[in-house]
Design a protein that fits this description.
This is Carbohydrate ABC transporter permease. Pfam families: BPD_transp_1. It is a multi-pass membrane protein. The chain is mainly alpha-helical. Helices cover about 70% and strands about 0% of the residues.
């Protein structure tokens, strides 16, 4: 039986029509081209970051560094602010993701319950916020009046509830068998106990998906740092430091000034880096954590989007 099942794909491939074979060939070629187009910018940036700075100015670096060196990374990690900014970014990513996913799941569970009479009104009100907002200035004034300027919690509290994430989780919860929830209530579990011990474990696939969305948004965010904490170096994030370095490097290149005006350090340190090499290095440093996390969530990511994104 097992042998016949293993031979089935080969027999199917043997009886494919010329049109199907042509389509498969075109599909493979297209996906390979798409993969190359997607990966090339990252590989090229990695090659530039591993190449000597002065040699990178000549150009012509594609997939591999021409003159390999670790000097760009050594220079980046010699900066004390980088480690502290990375710590702040990691803290806001972990804390913000955990609290946001938990709060979004609670809201999604509430509006998914058919006995909640305001579920349609609340859902419409949430969806409207995806199309209309108060604007940048009213939002800034609100944050200031709430006393969250120059504080770590300005990274966490304003983004606790993401409407898109709530909709995905709600669609997933609505697909759960009602009998499981009823069994928990018959056994004496309250709504919060049912939510914690029944709903949350069953929602792991969609929670992994939403966690990835939230983590990437938190890790890549820098504009809120610029608005609310730009005067507080202790709360600066890695992405904000990257933005400042990119801005300074572009300004330096456009004005034609020497590198000494952009970097503070010895002459030897100035000569071993350039704006191009630092820009590539900082891009890799900021991207690697998310790239390392994604493979562990890929299975749940695909499953969560499939089950939570289509309502039966």
């Amino acid at each position: 039986m097992a042998n016949s099942l293993s031979k089935a794909p080969k027999m199917y491939a043997r009886f494919k029509s010329p049109t199907d074979r042509l389509f498969d060939t075109f599909n493979i070629i297209f996906m390979i081209c798409l993969m190359i187009v997607t990966l090339y910018p990252f590989i090229n940036t990695l090659a530039v970051s591993l190449n000597t700075a002065n040699d990178s100015i000549k150009g012509g670096i594609y997939l591999l560094p021409r003159e390999f060196t670790w000097e760009n990374y050594k220079y980046v990690f010699e900066e004390a602010t980088i480690f502290h900014a990375t710590l702040i970014s990691a803290l806001r990513t972990v804390i913000g993701t955990v609290l946001s996913v938990f709060c979004c799941t609670m809201v999604a569970y509430t509006i998914a319950r058919p006995e909640y009479v305001l579920r349609k009104f609340i859902s419409i009100a949430f969806i409207l916020t995806m199309y209309f907002s108060g604007g940048l200035i009213p939002n800034f004034l609100l944050i200031r009046e709430l006393g969250m300027m120059n504080s770590f919690w300005v990274y966490i509290i304003p983004g606790l509830i993401g409407v898109f994430n709530v909709i995905i989780i709600r669609s997933f919860i609505e697909k759960l068998p009602e009998g499981i929830l009823e069994s928990a209530r018959i056994d004496g579990a309250g709504e919060f106990t049912t939510f914690l011990r029944v709903v949350l474990p069953l929602c792991l696939p969609v929670l992994a998906t939403v966690s990835l969305f939230s983590a990437v948004a938190q890790w890549n965010s820098w504009f809120d740092v610029f608005l609310y904490n730009s005067s507080n170096v202790e709360l600066s994030t890695l992405q904000y430091e990257l933005m400042k370095i990119l801005q300074n490097s572009n300004t330096s290149m456009n004005s034609g000034s020497d590198y000494a005006s952009m970097f503070s350090g010895s002459e030897a340190a100035i000569n071993r880096v350039t704006p191009t090499s630092i820009r590539a290095t900082m891009t890799i440093v900021a991207s690697v954590p998310i790239i390392l996390v994604y493979p562990f969530l890929q299975k749940y990511f695909v499953q969560g989007m499939t089950l939570g994104g289509v309502k039966g």
